[in-house]
Structure formats: structure tokens, C-alpha cells
Amino acid sequence: MLDNIKTSFSISDLQELSGISVHNIRMWERRYNLLDPSRTHSNIRRYSNEHLKKLLNISFLLKSGYKISELATFNDQQFNIAVNSVLALDNDYQLAINDFKMAMLNFDSRLFEATYHRLRDTMSFYDLFLKVMVPFLEHIGSLWQTNSITVAHEHYVSNILRQKIFYQIEHLPRSGPGQKERYILFLPLNELHELGLLFIHYTLLMLGKDSIYLGPNVDIESLEGLPQSEQHIYVSYMTMGSPDEDLSGYFREFRKSLMKAEDKFWLTGARVQKLPKGPGSKNISIFKSIYDLLVFIKT
What we know:
Strand order of the largest sheet: 4-3-5-6-7
Keywords: DNA-binding, Repressor, Transcription, Transcription regulation
Distance between the termini: 43 Å
Strand content: 5-15%
Helix content: 40-55%
CATH architecture of the largest domain: 3-Layer(aba) Sandwich
Protein name: MerR family transcriptional regulator
InterPro entries: Cbl-bd_cap, DNA-bd_dom_put_sf, MerR-type_HTH_dom, MerR_fam, Meth_synthase_dom
Radius of gyration: 22 Å
Structural class: alpha/beta
Number of strands: 7
Shape: elongated
Domain HTH merR-type: 8-77
CATH class of the largest domain: Alpha Beta
GO molecular function, one term: DNA binding
């Protein structure tokens, strides 16, 4: 794993990680000598961890009203003072997300845990995950697609967060018997990104619901063996692949094989968001995001 630690970044990596465009980075280098990168033999810019940290701080402070001409003159101590003064004024979580990024890139468990516990001192686990981790995970997805991080980075973060969620679930009281609704949470075959679904499971249990978490790679046939209840609400998260006719066929088979008249099927995730047509059934609902689904569950 240590071989995957990134100590050198391209200018495109900086753009993906900080949200600051390549154009602005180059302009600030010319105008303010902002980062002063090293160069390869072919004259390609290469940036260090310290360059990335500085740019993340700049990105954070620009959103808080600072001007780049002012920030370009700051030393490390001045950056720390400015960041702490902004944090004292509001609950902007971007700095925490930036710290999680640095912890991920360097496989730095100490920084990850320190940032996590700093947040937990001021907010519930539910709010922490929804307000900080969900945006962080969405950004990880885009970083992975642009090759700014490796699969090892994504797995590192996912495994830490999975442990956090399971710890919280373990300490929740369990609902009593006799509930008419039973929630069945699963990922279909070839779907592996389970953190969002696992957090929905945590939320359902927190609300006292009867929730069963089956995890990834569950086919329709396997779901036929579930014990009967008055109503099943199936919940799934689809991100892998592109929408095509196979999804419509999947929905038809799902309804035919599993769903009673009163049953429901709730879905979210990038794949179902791009469906050219709806699922074709009033019993199947698609939500724009995990946040929208959770709001619906809690109302």
C-alpha cells in the first residue's frame, strides 16, 4: 500500500483535488510565484504534498472572502490563523473534507481519526456522515474516474468508514417485533459501492425500523427466500454500468418475482439517475440522491 502514497502531483491532479482550475493555477504562478513547482526533464510541472496543502487552504479561504493577492503573501502561520478565524465564524465543513483528502492520499490514519473525532465532538454521527462524508465520497468518485487517486485510496477510505458505520449500528437499540414494514437493503449483482446503502441501514435502525442489510452482489433469486411480512420495502443503490434495456428488464423481473401489491422498491445512485425513462411502475421510486431518500424516510 505504501507504494500508492502520492508525493507528486500533476497540475490536473491539483485541479481535481482543490477545485481550482488549471488556468488559475498557472496564472497565479506567473503573477505571484504561488507554488513554484519542480519540473521534469520534459518541462512538465510536478507538485508536492505541501503545494497541495497550500492550494487546499487557498481554495477554502477564497470561498470565505479572502483575495488571492492577499493569500499569495501568506506564510504557514498566517494560513493557520486565517483558517482558524474562519472556522470560528461558521460551520463550513470544507476544511474537514480537505483534511480527509490529505489523510486518504497519504494513508494517514492519525490525521483521518483526528479529523473524524474533531467533528464528532460537535455533531452527531448522522449529521457528520450526511454533511461531510457524503460530499467527500462523491468527490472521491470523480477523483477515481480521472485517475487522480488509485483503487487503493478508495478502498482505504471505504474500509475505515465501513468500520465507523458498523460501530454505530452495534450500539443502536433494536426494534421490537410486530412492525408491518420490513426494509430489505441490498446491492444487485456487480454493484460494490455499499457505503451509502449501509448508512441508509443505520438511519432506518436509528429510527426504530425493521431493517435487514444483505450487502452487495445479491441476485433476484436469492431475495425470493426472504421471510414473509405484511409489506416489504426494498432499497438499493445503483452506480455501476450505464442505463440500458437491461435495467427495464431487471425491474420487470423484480416486480414479477418478488413484489406484492403493497410492496415498494426505492432506488438511488448515478445509474438510475440517467435512465431515459422511468421505472414503469408506481411501486418503484427513484430518488435523486441519498440525501433525498433519507429526507423521505424521516418524514
